């Protein structure tokens, strides 16, 4: 039977009604162009290394490339601001970290982003355990012995950190608070110079990452006392945790996750989380993370959001107690 003009109009109307709307269709086809992940540190740092690992895998799974863009400086604040102000279309994501999301809100005045409101939390990626290491000449060989020595000499034991308000420094302040001890915090411009002075015996103690300290532990140049994560680090299974020895419930560590701007479409958020978790659960990827000093941390967006909020609350309290504040 031949179609009339009225039949054609009805068919066109029905087709238009069945076709997804513009934004919905765009979300269904996402990604249609390269996806950018902003890393708030220079190339070669931990957040950069782990981000590049999963970014390469996402590029293999998606029809478009994932490009890592490094924006170092300013304690990561400029990079996080750029990520927060990006269009919430899924084409600009941000590697949020323990420093930029967890610590900065409590120590940086005039922070140009709201860590709790300006981001859509996609998922955590990696946990980076820290630990207390000592020069071999230091008599304490356990966390309990260290606490005893520190209580005998309040403020008389030097403890090196990678700089004020770093994860290493804040973890040390949390340790002092939870154990009722006091140390003379010696701040360096990064972990490298601090470790150099520890190896030389110029300072007896340091909080550092397992990744950075492991070669020196294996060579016998420094002695591990305890790790900061709630569970023992897979790289050092014989080293006890602070929580199991002197401060039940203690947990402090570096971490890096993935987030987008607030308002990120739910379908995009779930898609990225699903693919990211699949990558993080691959045995080969988990083994590579351990080799680099971290532990893969797959999970839900909701769990990651709750985790970030707990981190902010914990470091806000420690920053207040220890009077930690960065200027500029």
TrEMBL record:
Residues 1-26 form the signal peptide. Transmembrane segments: none annotated. Keywords: Signal. InterPro entries: BUG, Bug_dom1, TAT_signal. The keyword Cell membrane does not apply. The keyword Coiled coil does not apply. SUPFAM superfamilies: Periplasmic binding protein-like II. Belongs to the UPF0065 (bug) family. This is Tripartite tricarboxylate transporter substrate binding protein.
């Amino acid at each position: 039977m031949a179609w009339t003009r009225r039949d054609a109009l009805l068919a066109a109307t029905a087709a238009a009604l069945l076709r997804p709307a513009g934004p919905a269709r765009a979300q269904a086809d996402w990604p249609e162009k390269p996806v950018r992940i902003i890393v708030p540190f220079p190339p070669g740092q931990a957040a950069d290394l782990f981000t590049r690992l999963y970014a390469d895998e996402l590029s293999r799974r998606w029809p478009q490339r994932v490009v890592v863009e490094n924006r170092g400086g300013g304690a990561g604040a400029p990079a996080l601001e750029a990520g927060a102000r990006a269009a919430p279309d899924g084409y600009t994501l941000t590697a949020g970290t323990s420093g930029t999301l967890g610590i900065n809100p409590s120590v940086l005045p005039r922070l140009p982003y709201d860590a709790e409101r300006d981001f859509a939390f996609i998922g955590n990626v990696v946990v980076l355990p820290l630990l207390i290491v000592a020069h071999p000449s230091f008599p304490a060989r356990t966390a309990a012995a260290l606490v005893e020595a520190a209580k005998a000499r309040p403020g008389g034991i030097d403890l090196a950190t990678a700089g004020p308000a770093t994860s290493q420094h804040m973890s040390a302040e949390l340790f002092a608070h939870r154990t009722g001890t006091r140390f003379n915090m010696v701040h360096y411009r990064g972990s490298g110079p601090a470790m150099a002075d520890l190896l030389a015996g110029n300072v007896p103690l340091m909080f550092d990452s397992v990744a950075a300290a492991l070669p020196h532990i294996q060579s016998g140049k420094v002695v591990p006392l305890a790790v900061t994560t709630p569970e023992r680090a897979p790289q050092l299974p014989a080293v006890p945790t602070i929580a199991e020895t002197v401060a039940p419930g203690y947990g402090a560590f570096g971490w890096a996750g993935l987030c987008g701007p607030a308002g990120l479409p739910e379908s995009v958020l779930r898609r990225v989380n699903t693919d990211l978790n699949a990558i993080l659960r691959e045995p080969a990827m988990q083994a590579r993370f351990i080799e680099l000093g971290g532990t893969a941390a797959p999970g839900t967006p909701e769990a990651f959001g709750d985790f970030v909020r707990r981190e902010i609350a914990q470091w806000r309290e420690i920053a207040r107690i220890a009077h930690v504040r960065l200027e500029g």
